[in-house]
Amino acid sequence: MSAQEFIPPEADTLDELKAAAAGCHGCELWEHASQTVFGRGAAHARVVFVGEQPGDVEDQKGLPFVGPAGHLLRRAVDDAGIDPSTIYITNAVKHFRFEMRGKRRIHQTPGPQHITACRPWLVAEFSLLRPEIVVVLGATAAKALLGPDFRVTRSRGQLLPWPASAHHPEDFQAAGPGAAEGAAKSTAERAAKGAAKRAEMQALATIHPSAVLRADNRDLAYQGLVDDLKVVAKQL
Ligand code: SF4
Questions:
Q1: Which atom of ligand 1 is nearest to the CA of 6?
Q2: Model confidence over 192-208: pLDDT tens digits?
Q3: pTM summary value
Q4: CA–CA gap between residue 112 and residue 201 (Å, rounded)
């Protein structure tokens, strides 16, 4: 199963992708979740943040990173000195995976099959956004983007070439229709602009903001997140 068949081949805006994702049945997670939670943010984002999956609050509101972890991330973005108007935030998996315990919905980490099934949406978002820096939040997103062997604890805060460091970099090298290149008049112009922008792209992994909320020493964990994001801010 895969999201691929639900992606409109001619989509050239994020809104078109988002509308199509609302009807995605690329894996079974849509059956119990409330709705698809697509990415949101600047269409010409310089920094794209990729998390794991929507949480309980996000599932209900239909927006990514609007729960406690999202608030913490936005504070860290501010504290790191990244302009919030230049970011886009999304998840590797776009439906909430959970199990019921009594009346509570408890987060379950998405499996490799969900990450693989949902990956085409991420590739489609990237083909339009073409950010300068991709910030990978936590182990699940790192597996989705940087491969199963990538360890956030070992390599966090380091700038990596993108898409060269991606798992299956060819997915992210394909020239997309390019909303970011909307001003370009011809396919050749778009391809040239896209290639130039891609050449400058980098990725950086850090912890997921929910890990800060769970940490024994929250202040220390928060400072670590901000320090990693300061590496991003310096590059912009
Ligand atoms: S998690 Fe992804 S692939 Fe699965 S149904 Fe939702 S949008 Fe489609």
A1: 8
A2: 555 555 557 999 999 99
A3: 0.90
A4: 26
